Amino acid sequence: MPDRYFSVPEANVLLPRLHVLVTELQRIRAAIVDAQPEFLPVLEASVTNGGNREASAMLLRFGQVEALVDEIRNTGCRAKDVQMGLVDFLHRRPDGRIVLLCWRLGEDQIGYWHELDSGFQGRQPLV
Fold first, then answer.
1. pTM score > 0.70 for this model?
2. Average pLDDT of each block of 10 consecutive residues along the chain (127 residues)?
3. Which of 34, 46, 51, 104 is the one with CA 20 to 30 A from 61?
């Protein structure tokens, strides 16, 4: 898929859908993290006995994560950090420089950007 560049208004239009997708990703991630201590024995047991319900449920969660991330990618956005709820949007500034618009779950609109190589720590307010 070719890179998609977003204006701030175009990115803002996607935020309601991204809010739903990222919230669901965080919910599934939390379930995976909560099950992590018991996950390895469940998988080992499933290999020797032909499968079990817990392993099947965990594999389903992994599939759900993949589908949600794919849905975000299909919008042209970049899911950057599920735990923090970060999504970036490619943006071409008026001077032609390519940067990333940066949105974090809980923010009402796009209010920040950062250089391609600086990440969340380099966020700067839109002016």
1. yes
2. 91 98 93 72 58 73 90 94 95 96 98 95 94
3. 104
